[in-house]
Amino acid sequence: MIPDEQQSYYTDVRQHHLEPLWAIPDWFLSVEPLPPYRPFQWHWRDVYPRLMAAAKHMVPGQGGSRRVLVYAHPDLKSTLGTTHTLNVAMQMILPGEEAPAYRHTPLAIRFIISGQGAMTTVNGERMAMESGDFLLTPRWAWHDHRHEGEGPMIWMDGLDIPLTRYVGAIFVEPYNQPMQTETVPFLQSEKLFGVAGLYPKALPDLHAANGTLMSYPWHQTRQALNAIRDTVPNPYEGAIVEYRNPLTGGPVLPTLGATMQALLPLEQTRRHRHTSSVAYYAYRGEGSLQIGQTWHDWVEGDVLVVPPWHWHAHRNRSHSDEALLFAISDEPMVAALGLYREEVDHD
């Protein structure tokens, strides 16, 4: 029971927009992180029909630049964040459509889900989009999309919009025409930097920001996964590879990391936790993700969020097929701030 005099003091200071920190000790000095949101899962069976239906209500370039559904966490409604720092979204473009060129300060990745015949152009470099490919859009890079094939083209977007908005640095600028002119040879960055450890000694003019690898094709990711699976699997993640900048050896983007992992039939990993948040996309197979004490069963297309400092582990439910999970996280940003910490379960 707070004495009346002390309660009167609290009331007085709060009327002057001050706060007695000792009265709310957990706000600052909690023993462990207290993320303001819970683990969450979106089911593909709910997302896919609504993504298809979006074609009736929106055309790229007409009333909006992109046909996108954002995975908006119910505990983060004010930011539309999937986590407190990242957005995950699903984008679709139909044959003959063009998503006009613009640039923005939030950086982005594209993980291609399905479809053929679409292209994305980033700072004048045109890149193919095939299932399993991983593409980059750095900060303030011009980018557009067009679909010259057949059937819907679907991919996952990952952006650091909540973080960029929090620091007050959101900028967006439209291009001076609907679509970019191709000024860089097709797949130039992949040809220059796509072979590990072998790079041109004298770099040509790379036209602004594309001075590193921009496209990570699925066949190379598949090859790397196979090699890891047969040699040094991670006891907490299975066979896992991290997409990295080939020139620096660091993360592909300053605030966003990405991985692909494979779980063998009936494989179950051990638990760990870390101070970075993770959003998983179930690319192939079926499995379960344990977060805390709860197992969340997933199938292809589902998205699951693990907040910071939550124990989690993986399980492949299939007796015969591997399970593949693509993930994005804010680990590079957390690590750059000196705040990354990981704990493993030794039981």
From TrEMBL:
Q: Name one GO molecular function term.
A: dioxygenase activity
Q: Which Pfam families match?
A: Cupin_2
What region holds the Cupin type-1 domain? 223-345
List the InterPro entries hit by this protein, alphabetically: Cupin_1, Cupin_2, GDO-like, RmlC-like_jellyroll, RmlC_Cupin_sf
Concerning SMART domains, the annotation shows: Cupin_1
This protein's source sits in the domain of life called Bacteria
Keyword list (alphabetical) reads: Dioxygenase, Oxidoreductase
**Per the database entry, which stretches of residues form a coiled coil?**
none
Q: Does the keyword Glycosyltransferase apply?
A: no
Q: Which PANTHER family match?
A: 1,2-DIOXYGENASE PROTEIN-RELATED (PTHR41517), CUPIN (PTHR41517:SF1)
Give the protein's recorded name: Cupin type-1 domain-containing protein
Species source reads: Sulfobacillus acidophilus
Q: What is the lineage of its organism?
A: Bacteria, Bacillati, Bacillota, Clostridia, Eubacteriales
